[in-house]
Design brief:
With about 475 residues, the chain is α/β, with parallel strands linked by helices. It has helices at about 1-5, 60-65, 90-95, 115-130, 145-155, 170-180, 205-220, 240-245, 290-295, 345-360, 385-395, 420-430, 440-445, 460-465; strands at about 20-25, 30, 50-55, 105-110, 135-140, 160-165, 180-185, 225-230, 250-255, 260-270, 275-280, 285-290, 305-315, 315-330, 335-340, 365-370, 405, 410, 415, 435-440, 455. Helix 13 (about 440-445) links the parallel strand 20 (about 435-440) and strand 21.
């Protein structure tokens, strides 16, 4: 009888909100009422996980109903140049588009141990020298561990505050109270909302945690840096909607056992996505590499066949890199082809061009192509370098070490024009190259440059006959 006399819960009572069980794809975030072996959205297998989500009307819906929104004409909005905060690290500022934008959210991803936390701690060190207030929130390390890592990097000012917490409600209240200019979240996969029953790192938790932090960033004008774990495929773990929510996505590339790191912007609402920053990992942290071309060409062999220097553009920066090729007779019926640092299918295409247009019989040969230093380049301008490296190894004739090349190769064997040719030539001249092989159509548009000889070629055969 007592249960009958209990008052009914109102529809808006959040405490009586029931939870239902749904399945989320851990790769793309697709929601399904039942488990599926393959995700119909992204095509991944065995990625669905069971999670509970509330079905009642929560406080978020009530708060949204109280917001008074209005329509604004475009010409009524005052557009001013966004004031940026310089980090003091030139390579990072280049990738960000000129500095940190207040109220923005930046996602930093990369393999474990590659230097994500180290870079952001160095950013905190530089910003404290400008008396910027910073809050570093760690969900993975203790305060003592962060202190030890900070001592290795160098002295950090008193403007840096540390917080070891994973509860987003507590973190949000502290941010509203302290009002720092910059907040670092390490990492987003460890944060959780009490209102969501699923475990930290799940699709629901990552999505809701990022949404809450995004509201704080836009509402309070605080710049957020969040660190994201990556999967074995090298993408940020969790739903792809995470990358759509943030303003900037930065990826660390390179082997963590190698000396250098490359920071690349995959998405940037406030700048170009073609810029990269090059760093070298040392005992004291990450050091900027001001001249990546000279760094990449260190240790280039002399008098070896199958090696040539090509020029690629990353945003507004020309980078000289060594293209290596090894062509040898196959001992099996099926020749083996390997490409490291460039597109595998592109290498097969260029080998077919060499066999069809030049007459080099590579159908029965193993071929290995490598961009020295572990850097990855997909720009078509390195096509000519790959072709000349393959031909040099096939004929076992070295290319002059003072020769550089760039140009796109078509299926007819023609060498096509590429952009920013003048910047490429000036970079080659600065590093001491005496000869530059480039498309004939580009050479006619370049001014006369002293100190380097420009040779234009129309097709692949002309280039091979000229260099090899």
């Amino acid at each position: 009888m007592a249960s009958i006399l209990q008052p009914f819960a109102s529809p808006g009572n959040n405490s009586m909100a029931k939870a239902k069980t749904v399945y989320f794809c851990q790769s793309c975030g697709m929601e399904s009422a039942k488990w599926m072996g393959q995700c119909s959205s992204c095509g991944e297998w065995n990625t669905f996980a069971e999670e509970e989500v509330p079905t009642g009307k929560g406080s978020r819906s009530a708060s949204r109903r109280q917001i008074q929104s209005k329509v604004t004409k475009l010409n009524e909005i005052e557009a001013a140049e966004e004031e940026r905060i310089f980090t003091g690290i030139a390579e990072l500022d280049r990738v960000l588009g000129g500095g940190i934008v207040p109220g923005s959210m930046t996602l930093v991803g990369g393999d474990p141990g590659i230097g994500k936390s180290t870079l952001l701690l160095q950013v905190c060190q530089k910003l404290t020298e400008q008396n910027r207030s910073i809050l570093y929130v760690s969900g993975e390390e203790s305060l003592r561990q962060i202190k030890i890592r900070a001592a290795r990097i160098g002295k950090i000012g008193d403007a840096l505050s540390l917080l070891c917490e994973t509860n987003l409600d507590v973190i949000g209240e502290i941010i509203k109270k302290e009002r720092p200019q910059i907040v670092v979240i390490d990492s987003i996969q460890t944060m959780y909302h009490e209102a969501i029953s699923s475990a930290p790192g799940s699709v629901s938790q990552v999505r809701e945690s990022t949404g809450s932090l995004l509201m704080l960033a836009k509402g309070l004008g605080i710049a957020f840096f969040i660190i994201g774990h990556v999967t074995k495929e090298g993408v940020v773990a969790g739903p792809r909607v995470l990358e759509h929510m943030v303003d900037t996505v930065l990826y660390f590339e390179g082997d963590r056992h190698a000396a250098y790191r490359i920071l690349r912007a995959v998405k940037n609402r406030f700048g170009s996505t073609n810029e990269i920053g090059v760093f070298e990992m040392r005992a004291s942290g990450l050091e900027e590499v001001e001249n990546p071309s000279e760094f990449m060409l260190g240790g280039k062999p002399q008098g070896a066949s199958g090696s040539i220097v090509a020029c690629s553009m990353e945003g507004s920066r020309p980078i000289l890199l060594e293209v290596q090729a090894l062509v040898c007779r196959s001992n099996f019926g099926m020749p083996r082809r390997t490409a490291a640092g460039c597109d595998f299918n592109r290498v097969n295409l260029l080998m077919a061009v060499l066999e069809k247009r030049v007459g080099l019989q590579m159908g029965s040969c193993d071929a290995y192509v490598n961009i020295a230093g572990g850097i990855r380049m997909n720009e078509p301008a390195i096509d000519l370098g790959i072709v000349l490296a393959l031909a040099s190894s096939y004929k076992n004739r070295p290319v002059d070490e003072k020769t550089i090349c760039f140009g796109e190769v078509g299926l007819s064997g023609e060498v096509r024009a590429v952009n920013m040719a003048e910047q490429r030539v000036l970079e080659a001249k600065k590093l001491g190259f005496s000869t530059c092989i480039l498309p004939e159509s580009v050479k006619a548009t370049l001014p006369v440059t002293d100190g380097i000889r420009l040779i234009g070629v129309r097709n692949v055969k002309d280039a091979i006959d000229l260099v090899i």
